[in-house]
# Entry
Amino acid sequence: MLTQMKVRGLLFDPYNNAYIVILRDEHCADMLPIWVGKSEAGAISFALEQVSPPRPTTHDLLKSILDNVDAKVLSAVVTDLKDNTYYAKIHLWYGDSEYSVDSRPSDAIALALRADAPIFTSEDVLRKQSSEELERWLENLKPEDFGKLET
# Structure
């Protein structure tokens, strides 16, 4: 079964020198943190803030190509978690068929945000991620630990 998620924010993790995309369901019962690099966080931030860069990013280019061939992004799905690595698929509709394309979660999220497509995760992924570990990490954060995303 799938749970629809929304991007609720981006945080900087000073311990890992990475960014965290926070996905939450609409009832805020389930949360999924996904660690991403700076450029991936920038791509997601641009989409969240609806910023149009002077030249298209890779995700803008991909969205433009899909639009020009009349393909539609149906959804982005975080499908698995193995060895602390998340996996995702982008579901597309083209012609009379649905296609599923392997993706990094950050790319799937960045494209879904640009295409106004829903983001989902499987219940299996939600079970696999350690919420206790995340809660412990969040409890130890200080306000100065929250960095500002530089794009």
About this structure: The chain has one domain: 2-143. DSSP finds five helices and seven strands in the chain. The helical segments are 38-49, 58-68, 105-114, 123-128, 131-139.
